[in-house]
Amino acid sequence: MINAISSALSGLLAASKKVETSASNIANISSSGALDEADGRAPYSALTTTQQSVTDANGNGIGVRSATVPKDPGFVQAYDPDSPFANEDGVIGVPNVNLAEESVNLKIAELSYKANIKVLQTAESLSDELIESLDKKA
After folding, report:
1. DSSP string of 44-88, one letter each residue
2. pTM, rounded to two decimals
């Protein structure tokens, strides 16, 4: 039962990391910058999350590890000749953020929260039943 709780808690942390990353991308969607860092401020580079299963020495799954990594490419070119960051061709860098993708990521995180909370509730219920059963035998 401890493995179930450990897995659920690591799943909650992974979902939180996904929400944090999507929130950062959405908040910075309008953050433009110069294509060449030498010209001034670089644009916000979009992020994504990765997840990797974690196993014990016996190969049993005990959770998930999540990390935030830069998206490839982190920013794309856009034409905005009026921007102070525009190069001689009027091109700037804008974050490579897709609102539809971020909405899906937030929905996945929500469903992950719900599933992991349900695992914790089930573990608590099983623990309560076990204690009740032991009390009746005593």
Report:
1. PPPEEEEEEEEE-TTS-EEEEEEEEEE-SSSEEEEE-TTSTT--T
2. 0.86
Q: Which amino acid is at 39?
A: D
Other C-beta atoms closer than 10 Å to the C-beta of 50 total 11
- Crossing angle (nearest 10°) for helices 99-137 and 2-27: 160
- 135 by Cβ neighbours in 10 Å (0-12 / 13-18 / 19+) ranks as exposed
- Three-class secondary structure of residue 92 per DSSP: strand
Omega prior to 81 cis, within 30 of 0: no
Cα–Cα distances (Å) from 12 to 56, 115, 116, 138, in that order, read 19, 9, 6, 37
Contact between 97 and 84 under an 8 Å Cβ cutoff? The reply is no
Place of tokens 């573990």: 123
Question: What is the pLDDT, as a whole number, of residue 122?
Answer: 95
Q: Give the residue extent of every domain in the chain.
A: 2-137
